[in-house]
Specification:
With about 140 residues, the chain is α+β, with helices and mostly antiparallel strands. The chain has helices spanning about 10-25, 25-40, 110-130, and strands at about 1-5, 45-50, 55, 60-65, 70-75, 100-105. Strands 1-2-3-4-5-6 form a six-stranded mixed beta sheet. The protein is globular and about 35 Å long.
Length: about 140
């Protein structure tokens, strides 16, 4: 697994592990579980540390992982363009780009549906970055 976004001599993966341990409750467990699912869905995912939190990328941002007092939030950067037949997106539904999954204590996430979202996000990022440039020839 690739790592980027190192800070204070620690890799992004180390900083994410530290955040998970620091939470020390259901939020850390939830964030760790979602991290594992992301890695299972995309073994080539890059873990980054941006905006004081974990970010998972592959040819662009897949999602960020934030923890709040009552929720763990996974925000998909281009979630509005992803198909979500299982209805996992339950937050940030009004924007033109992002969509988020808010997970409250005791809630379970459909693992196969979540992995499908991650794979879809990677495919979308890869298709956008692999398109030829639209610059006009001069």
């Amino acid at each position: 697994m690739k790592k980027s976004g190192a800070s204070q001599g620690q890799s992004a993966s180390e900083l994410i592990s530290h955040r998970i341990a620091e939470l020390g409750d259901w939020r850390g467990e939830t964030l760790n579980s979602m991290r594992k699912l992301i890695k299972e869905a995309d073994p080539d995912v890059i873990e980054e540390w941006k905006w004081m939190g974990p970010v998972w990328s592959h040819a662009g941002i897949i999602c960020t992982g934030e923890s709040y007092k009552k929720v763990v939030k996974l925000t998909f950067a281009k979630g509005a363009s992803l198909k979500d037949p299982a209805g996992l997106f339950n937050s940030s539904l009004d924007g033109n780009a992002r969509r988020a999954i808010d997970i409250h204590e005791g809630e379970a996430v459909d693992e196969s549906a979540f992995k499908a979202l991650v794979r879809q996000a990677v495919a979308r990022n890869s298709s956008v970055t692999s398109k030829p440039s639209k610059k006009a020839k001069s």
